[in-house]
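Worked example

This section walks through a single chain of length 196. The input is the sequence exactly as stored; nothing has been trimmed or padded.
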Amino acid sequence: MRIAEFAFEYAKANGRSKVTAVHKANIMRMSDGLFLQCCRDAAENHPDIKFNEMYLDTVCLNMVQDPSKFDVLCMPNLYGDILSDLCAGLVGGLGVTPSGNIGFEGSAIFESVHGTAPDIAGQDKANPTALLLSAVMMLRHLKLNSYADRIETACFDTIREGVHLTGDLGGKAKCSEFTQDICEKVQKPAKDKKHD
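Given that input, the structure is written out below as C-alpha cells.
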C-alpha cells in the first residue's frame, strides 16, 4: 500500500496529474492482484489525481510510440527495472538516466542507473549526466528546488548546444570538458531567480 500511496503523494508534490498502475494481474493474479487493489484504494483517497491501470506489455508498446501519454507510473520492482531500461533507451541510454530509491519516511538513495564502466575507467571518457541528474533528484527530494533547476538547466543546455558532448552522446569531448561547460553555466548568475 505504501508504494501506491507514495505515487499519489509524489504526483501531488510535483504538479503531476495522473498515476498509472502497471501490472500483469491477468497472469500474476495473487501478487499483482493485491498490488492493483492497493493502487485502487490509494486512488480513492486522492480523487484530484487521475488514475488508470495498464498491463506492462501495453505500457511498453505505448511508451515507445508516445511517452507523453504517461505521467507517474507505479509498479512492482521487477517491472520498474524492465521499464526503466526501455525508457533509458528512449532518452539516450543509461549514461543519461538518473535514479532514486525513496524509502519509508523519506529516507532515500540517489544514483546513476549504469554501472562503473571499467573499460573506460581513468580515461576521462565517462558521461556524468546520470550522476548529475541523480543529484538533481536528491536536491528536489530535499526541497532545494532552485538549486536542482539550475543544475538541470545547465546540464540540458550543454547537451542541447552539442559543443561538449561525450562519446556516448555522439561527441568527442572528454568528461572533464563536458563537466566544465556545465559548471560554467551553473556559476552564471541566475536571471530573476531566488535560491531556496
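What to look for: The mean pLDDT is 91.
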